[in-house]
Every structure is written in structure tokens, then in C-alpha cells.
Amino acid sequence: MTEQLTSEINPQLLSEIRGRFAHVDSCPFEGERVFFENAGGALTLNSVVETSAKFAAIPDNQGRDNPAAHALVALINKAKADMAVFFNAPEGQFFVGESGTELLFRLVRTACVATGAGRVLGTTLEHPATRSAARHWCEVVGKDHVLVAHNDATGSVTAAEYAAEVTPDTRVATILHTSPVTGMGVDVASIAAEIRKVAPECIIIVDGIQHAAHGRLDIASYDIDGYVVSPYKVFSRHGYGVAWVSDRLNALKHEHLIDAPGDPWEFGTRDTGAYVTFSDVVDYFDWLGGEVSDATDKRARIVAAGAAIHAYEKGLTDGMIHGVGNQTGLADMPSVTIIGGVDNPQREGLVSITVDGIAAPDVVTQLRERGIRTHTRKADHYSGNILDPLGMEAAVRVSMCHYNSDAEVAQFLQAMREITDAAS
To answer: Can you tell me the distance from the alpha carbon of 409 to that of 415, in angstroms, rounded to the nearest whole number?
Structure first.
């Protein structure tokens, strides 16, 4: 589907966007601040806050013979229909779980246990949610776990690099849509196509947790079997994850209560409010798409919103790297190293850096003291796979979303200039 944009995210629209989010420019504990920690958890829509409170107060459960229970079931069904439009997934099914990580573990576990002898293919780029699950279950069931080496210079991995490792007995493959450390995306559809050429029945599971906030989700075009997001990273709240499974993955033997109708994936009674808050997210994308396009179809508006978000966030990261207003960019600061390179078309709203002579946690502290929230990524079980090969103990992750502004980028650059100048 071609994105038909009639306008961009301009200052007036940005003001309306920011008005829809809670704590957009201030922390309830610290006061005014710039929020550049979106990869750790995006800002929450005000509508999500309201919905959460409303449904937390409802005592009824689904599946009872009363109007409240019937209404809850209808809202869950609506949310699943909204998810299908948002992700562009006309087939398969959606369900929620404890978290994105828990759901990735479940999908990987099911695929590893329920498929025949062979290999499980992943990459060194991936978050430990998929790498840890694949390693554990390969050890349990006796499959080989093969990791494709990502490109340290670009901070990503290509379809050709996957293709070199695919064999006919590849039963399961995992893909990270966007790295939460480098900020670089991968071409999921191209990677899946290379896998299918050699192993057409392979179960392909995608970690979309970091990608979702930046829009442009299109499961129908990927030819995959599982996709997982963490809603707190896409403008909803903590406490649940969302998973989609293809009909092929759904048909595999998976855990559920004995004699439960329909071979369900969910364990226990889920929170109706979780489902409804994801409808709030979809409604927000729908609204934004209507502001930047003339589209009348809901899916087309969501696609337009994703295109506008991508274009606007590219402007933010370009400004951070090359300069905005009267502030020169990170690329002009000799002591700053930008992970993944200066000009990388795969970048999605995130810039990770190191500063010569200053430990990353100290940079994060100095930025916080200047009213800017960022985060340290350490070479630990979360990020060591990215930082160790680069010889880095830690990095500063500066992550943005489309509700951030050029003025906030300029404030960050001024702070970075002060920090680097003082250390030189």
C-alpha cells in the first residue's frame, strides 16, 4: 500500500500530538525534563491511562451470563480486530500474555519442541528474549542453535548473511526487527524470503518490540509465523504483551488447559483493560494518519501515520547527528563515537554513542543533571552481544519518538557540547 501523505508533522500538529501523552515534558518525581529514553518504554497515551483506571474498577470477568461479561468479551474481540488492522494480519490470531519477553519465550518454546530434528537459526544482533529461549530449548530438545554474525559496523544484519547459514533442516528461525541497542532495523520480508527458499516450512518468529513505536508494521508482507510486541514500548502500559501467530504455528501442539475449546494460547483470565488499551493505541495511529493524509480507509490511515512517523523521526536523528538550529551535531564532536555509523539508512529513532574519556553512566548522569533523560546500555546479558565486539564497556542510548521536538534535540546537543568541552 502506498502512503499518501498530504502533510507532515508540523509544529501545530506536534503540539496536538504532545497533548495526547502523559508526562510529555516533565517527570512526576524530578520535574521538567526531555524524555529521550523511549526505547526503554515510550510515553503513555492519556487515553490509555483513563482506560486502565476504568477497567481496573470493573469486578466482572469474561464468560459469565451477565451484560458486563458480554461487554468485556465484545471489547476483547474488538481489540483483536483492531490488532489485525494495525499489524495488517488478516489471517492467524492475536493473544496477550505477561510481557513481550514471556510471549517470545512461549513461541520459541512451542516451535522448538513441536518441530522435528534440525537447526534453529538466529543472529548475534538479537535481544536475549529470543536468543536465550532458543538456546535453552535447543539444549532441551537436542537441536543445534546457529547464530548468524551481525555486522558490527552497521549494527544490523542482512538477508544475504542469513541466507549463508540456512539449511534444509532449519526448523525454526528468529529475527529481530529493530535493535534496541544500535537502533537499526532489518528487512524482515527479505530475510524470511531467503529462509523460505531453502526451508519453506521453517517456523519464523520475529521480535518486533523495538520496532512497533515507529510504525510501518505489515505482517501480511513478511511471510512469517510469529510476531511479538511489548505495548509499553508503543504508547500503552506495562503488564502485558501482544503476540500474533500464523495458522501454521497455531496448528503446532502447544500448551493449554486440558480439553479447552479451540486450543487457546492464553493462560488464565486476561485483563480486558489490556486489550482495550491496545485499541487506544490503534485509535491513536488512526487519528494521526487522518491528520497527515486524505485516506478514508482505517488501514491506509495507519500506514500513513507510520510513514509520517518515520520521516519525522529521521529528521530528529539527522538533526542530532548533523546539527539543528545553531547547534552542531554529534558528528562534529571529535570525542563522540556513534554506534552504527554516522549515515545509516536503517536507523529508527535512536542514536547510541560513547564519549572518549567519560564513562557512559557519567554521561547519562550529567545529561540528567541538565534535564535530559537517557540510558546506559552496558556490556551485560542484555547488550554485551553488541558492545563486546566493539570493545565497549557501555554506551549512552538516546532514543526518540515522534512526539519529541527539534528544540529538545538542540537542548541535548547544547548539553553534550558542555559535557565534551569540559572533558577536553
So the answer is: 10
